[in-house]
Amino acid sequence: MGVFRIVVGLLFACHGAASLFGVLGGAMGGGTVPVGTWPGWYAAVIQLGAGGLVLLGLGTRSAAFLASGSMAYAYFKVHQPESLFPLQNGGETAALFAWAFVLLVFTGPGALALDGLFRGRVGAGAPEKRTGEEREEQATPVTA
Question: Residue 110: helix, strand or coil by DSSP?
């Protein structure tokens, strides 16, 4: 799940960077989205910020929830009025990102996430494994 999170976060952040800074081909074939325009500029900020957080595995569930909502908004407000199906209305990317982020909300960051470092955990958010001796030492009180 960690590699999936990293790839989805990177791709999402690239969309935001393209719209905000004009890199990677820019917004809609070139240029940038004007600062403060609704909803394009705000969507780009969410894409860059949430995509970066998901990529790093920091606050993954919250960032994925925000990103999923923004993509659902994009799909239903921009694409769905054109036609019912994503293939017809050009909303495949928005639909795929929305569902990918929903998956990350429920599964968590997986392996290689920075969240684990801050919680003192290893791997996919699981508690650090201890040997039987370490458990016994912790459970047995020391008396003088």
Answer: coil
